Amino acid sequence: MKYSVIIPVHNEEQNVAPLHHDVLHTMQQLGEPFEIIFVDDGSHDGTVARLQELSPITIIQLRKNFGQTAALDAGIKHATGEVIITLDGDGQNPPKEIPKLLNVMQTGNYDVVSGWRRKRQDPLAKRLISRGAHALRGVFVRDHIHDSGCSLKVYKRVCFEHLDLFGEMHRFIPAMLGWSGFTVGEVEVEHHQRRFGTTKYNWKRVIKGFVDMLGIWFWRKYANRPLHLFGALSFFLTGIGGVLLLWLFIKRIILQISLANSNLPLLSVLLIILGIQFFVSGIIIDLSVKQYFSNGRRYYSIKQVDRR
Fold it and tell me: Which of 6, 44, 241, 249 pairs with 22 at a CA distance of 20 to 30 A?
């Protein structure tokens, strides 16, 4: 199989048939073997029934609504294509743009190409939230692309050999792959208004995305060296506690100032204990990470081995 098109859907009863038609038309023009995978993320309308009327198609049904990231991960793990193509199920990503992304991948020799919805057809509130998220990504994630939230992307299969998705991490896939040495490109794509149904974007997804962004930041900085973070916190807290304890010693022994009504001795001891706990926690997490990677997993990717 050359191409696998993966489309997560949730309550998109009216969108799946026209979307399947457009995807099928586009992929047939490429002249290569392909598969179309729809992942139903716990829809409770007639989405599955409409999907069962279509052909050719692979339908993956999740037992309940686990979220877009889980649906993407399920589709990727069932895909057999050399190139994986993803897009939303709401019809706002026009499938006719897929050849454009594939061409950029081939000419630029990229491992990933992300769509850039430069002229978004979304409500103002959603666009403002996306701009705020983009600013935060520039601080925490630094993926160096304009629109990581665009679901229209193409990947080489090798990108997902050591990558499991969870939470709301589908927005950060290019960033995580970039940190592992994969090359990431970007191209402007069209973006249409939603024709049917309602958006699944709400304040809960905003909060989850921000929390996952912090998790991604931690993983990027300290995935293979967590002791550096916890050790630094340990020395900081222990240092403050030690300096404070020394000052209290000078006040009580040398300056003969009573500390009977002061809470500072308790605070200094507490800071020292917290520092020791952070250091011990860092050692435990460090050992856990080393155990994780010793099981055949690694935080880097080898692109090529050249034997002559």
Answer: 44
